[in-house]
Amino acid sequence: MGAEFRCCFFYNAINALLGGMINGLLTLRGAWDKVRVDPVLKFMVVAITGYGMATFEGPMLSLKNVNAIAHYTDWIIAHVHVGALAWNGFLTFGMIYWLVPRLFKTKLYSLGLANLHFWIGTLGIIMYALPMYVAGFTQASMWKQFNPRWHFGLWKLFRNGF
Ligand code: HEM
Ligand code: HEM
Question: Global pTM?
């Protein structure tokens, strides 16, 4: 693929990120005090944050030099799940908690349980994704130590000191 073509993809992706984030955050403008009490909005805020993280990271991952580190490692799995769990998952539950009570003309059975769901989910995603990023980067660094003579760069370690 030509460099111009790749560049075009990169900027397209960045523009999509900015458009989505600005749209999401402006929608919340003036409603931040409600975020503290309304589980629907809490889910939405984490969803938009996950969207922002995954779609910022995505174009970075598409750069050849960054991809040379991240490809095949757990870094990609972290990226996948920030998108899948925080963005798609939390958006889905935000919508369900908004829609279902309206469909059935009722109120949420328990705000407390919805909040508990929110916190278990948020902490779970953080505990999943953060170690994955560290593990992915470590994986890549260890693979880069391989060389034809000494696996794991043992030779380099002896030569340069541990
Ligand atoms: C502007 C937005 C995004 C861009 C440019 C982007 C780009 C990328 C890149 C470069 C990879 C690495 C491929 C590899 O080396 O293996 C990747 C992997 C992946 N991304 Fe994203 N990403 C974006 C957002 C998202 C979001 C929001 C999700 C989920 C909702 C997602 C799901 C995935 C999945 C499932 C993979 C693993 C599949 C694969 O390795 O090909 N991405 N993405
Ligand atoms: C608690 C929830 C979840 C856990 C613990 C989990 C765990 C995992 C694990 C262990 C893998 C394999 C990683 C590897 O090959 O090294 C994986 C892959 C994947 N998961 Fe999940 N997952 C969860 C939820 C989800 C959800 C909700 C989605 C989509 C909406 C999703 C999408 C994917 C995809 C697309 C892959 C393949 C990534 C790739 O190989 O590029 N996951 N997940």
Answer: 0.85
